[in-house]
Amino acid sequence: MKQLPDATRHLAEAEAEEVFGWILDGEADDDAIARFLVDMSARSETSEEIAGAARALRNRMIPIAAPEGTVDCCGTGGDGHHTLNVSTAVSLVVAACGVPVAKHGNRAASSKAGAADTLEALGLDMEAAGRSAEKTLAELGICFLFAKNHHPAMGRIQPIRQKLGVRTIFNLMGPLSNPAGVRRQLIGIARPAYVPIYAAAKARLGTERSFIASGDEGLDELSLAGGNELADVTGNSFEMRRVLAVQANLPHAPVEAIRGGDPAHNACALEALLAGTPGPYRDAVLFNASATLIVAGRTDDWTEGAQIAAEALDSGAALTLLRDWIALSV
């Protein structure tokens, strides 16, 4: 077994890649891994460590082919707000706008309904969706990349994470390791003060353009409730800015207005959204869809982005896409 370094010491990017390679390959003791992850989280992971760990995970993933310009919209999870599935809905809306989306996700860890749980409740067969991911992405412009199918190295880590029951660097690695190799992303994280650190990690890994966002209340997506910290990452650098819902001509609403429930509850709400139901859930989706359309290069204006997304909902295109996706995932 490999001896893990003292986690109170900051690791250089190359060392972090090597150490997390040991962890993912089962070359370290489970108890030692648990202590290492907790100690690292307690002193906060650095951008070098996040980038190095993500490289280790990328090196072990099962990739898929994707069309040029494919994007992803996801969050790190663990924000404790138990909201409806915003990024899942955003993926459908953005894909219905003609931008291919490789949605990377998993089942719920700390919430009641993760992306996979809700999509399954809507009728999408997870195993079939996995088998046909490249096909649906090429033909419909959307796919779901179930994390367990593409990151087999995470299999031995999952019991350790579940036993710990706390957020670790593994929450941060997933969005940086999309199996479609997307170069444009909207990533939500649950710690506003951590946005520049995470953005620096994303910049180290390189991107055409990505937004790293966090609501002031610790929401792992753009929030209607108040302000948002946002890092605009292009290439190997980033700029910080503040973003408000009013910039997309959308009203403010408390987080409680988009509180979710179990998979059946969230699936019902998503179906209603796609059928044209107005309200805070729709507004939250339009806000985050606008951000995704901006990083995709479809617009550079928040209000226009929200309008493009609204048309995909109001025309029925997003609902039709969901139905076609379910039918094609066999």
Automatic annotation (TrEMBL):
<feature type="binding site">
    <location>
        <position position="115"/>
    </location>
    <ligand>
        <name>5-phospho-alpha-D-ribose 1-diphosphate</name>
    </ligand>
</feature>
<comment type="subunit">
    <text>Homodimer.</text>
</comment>
<comment type="similarity">
    <text>In the C-terminal section; belongs to the anthranilate phosphoribosyltransferase family.</text>
</comment>
<feature type="binding site">
    <location>
        <position position="75"/>
    </location>
    <ligand>
        <name>5-phospho-alpha-D-ribose 1-diphosphate</name>
    </ligand>
</feature>
<keyword id="KW-0028">Amino-acid biosynthesis</keyword>
<feature type="binding site">
    <location>
        <begin position="103"/>
        <end position="111"/>
    </location>
    <ligand>
        <name>5-phospho-alpha-D-ribose 1-diphosphate</name>
    </ligand>
</feature>
<dbReference type="InterPro" id="IPR005940">
    <property type="entry name" value="Anthranilate_Pribosyl_Tfrase"/>
</dbReference>
<dbReference type="InterPro" id="IPR036320">
    <property type="entry name" value="Glycosyl_Trfase_fam3_N_dom_sf"/>
</dbReference>
<dbReference type="Pfam" id="PF00591">
    <property type="entry name" value="Glycos_transf_3"/>
</dbReference>
<dbReference type="InterPro" id="IPR035902">
    <property type="entry name" value="Nuc_phospho_transferase"/>
</dbReference>
<keyword id="KW-0460">Magnesium</keyword>
<feature type="binding site">
    <location>
        <begin position="85"/>
        <end position="88"/>
    </location>
    <ligand>
        <name>5-phospho-alpha-D-ribose 1-diphosphate</name>
    </ligand>
</feature>
<keyword id="KW-0328">Glycosyltransferase</keyword>
<feature type="domain" description="Glycosyl transferase family 3">
    <location>
        <begin position="70"/>
        <end position="319"/>
    </location>
</feature>
<feature type="binding site">
    <location>
        <position position="161"/>
    </location>
    <ligand>
        <name>anthranilate 2</name>
    </ligand>
</feature>
<feature type="domain" description="Glycosyl transferase family 3 N-terminal">
    <location>
        <begin position="9"/>
        <end position="60"/>
    </location>
</feature>
<keyword id="KW-0057">Aromatic amino acid biosynthesis</keyword>
<feature type="binding site">
    <location>
        <position position="83"/>
    </location>
    <ligand>
        <name>5-phospho-alpha-D-ribose 1-diphosphate</name>
    </ligand>
</feature>
<comment type="similarity">
    <text>Belongs to the anthranilate phosphoribosyltransferase family.</text>
</comment>
<dbReference type="GO" id="GO:0000162">
    <property type="term" value="P:L-tryptophan biosynthetic process"/>
</dbReference>
<feature type="binding site">
    <location>
        <position position="87"/>
    </location>
    <ligand>
        <name>Mg(2+) 1</name>
    </ligand>
</feature>
<feature type="binding site">
    <location>
        <position position="220"/>
    </location>
    <ligand>
        <name>Mg(2+) 2</name>
    </ligand>
</feature>
<feature type="binding site">
    <location>
        <position position="221"/>
    </location>
    <ligand>
        <name>Mg(2+) 1</name>
    </ligand>
</feature>
<comment type="function">
    <text>Catalyzes the transfer of the phosphoribosyl group of 5-phosphorylribose-1-pyrophosphate (PRPP) to anthranilate to yield N-(5'-phosphoribosyl)-anthranilate (PRA).</text>
</comment>
<keyword id="KW-0808">Transferase</keyword>
<feature type="binding site">
    <location>
        <position position="221"/>
    </location>
    <ligand>
        <name>Mg(2+) 2</name>
    </ligand>
</feature>
<keyword id="KW-0822">Tryptophan biosynthesis</keyword>
<keyword id="KW-0479">Metal-binding</keyword>
<feature type="binding site">
    <location>
        <position position="106"/>
    </location>
    <ligand>
        <name>anthranilate 1</name>
    </ligand>
</feature>
<feature type="binding site">
    <location>
        <begin position="78"/>
        <end position="79"/>
    </location>
    <ligand>
        <name>5-phospho-alpha-D-ribose 1-diphosphate</name>
    </ligand>
</feature>
<dbReference type="GO" id="GO:0000287">
    <property type="term" value="F:magnesium ion binding"/>
</dbReference>
<dbReference type="InterPro" id="IPR017459">
    <property type="entry name" value="Glycosyl_Trfase_fam3_N_dom"/>
</dbReference>
<protein>
    <recommendedName>
        <fullName>Anthranilate phosphoribosyltransferase</fullName>
        <ecNumber>2.4.2.18</ecNumber>
    </recommendedName>
</protein>
<dbReference type="Pfam" id="PF02885">
    <property type="entry name" value="Glycos_trans_3N"/>
</dbReference>
<dbReference type="InterPro" id="IPR000312">
    <property type="entry name" value="Glycosyl_Trfase_fam3"/>
</dbReference>
<comment type="pathway">
    <text>Amino-acid biosynthesis; L-tryptophan biosynthesis; L-tryptophan from chorismate: step 2/5.</text>
</comment>
<dbReference type="GO" id="GO:0004048">
    <property type="term" value="F:anthranilate phosphoribosyltransferase activity"/>
</dbReference>
<feature type="binding site">
    <location>
        <position position="75"/>
    </location>
    <ligand>
        <name>anthranilate 1</name>
    </ligand>
</feature>
<dbReference type="GO" id="GO:0005829">
    <property type="term" value="C:cytosol"/>
</dbReference>
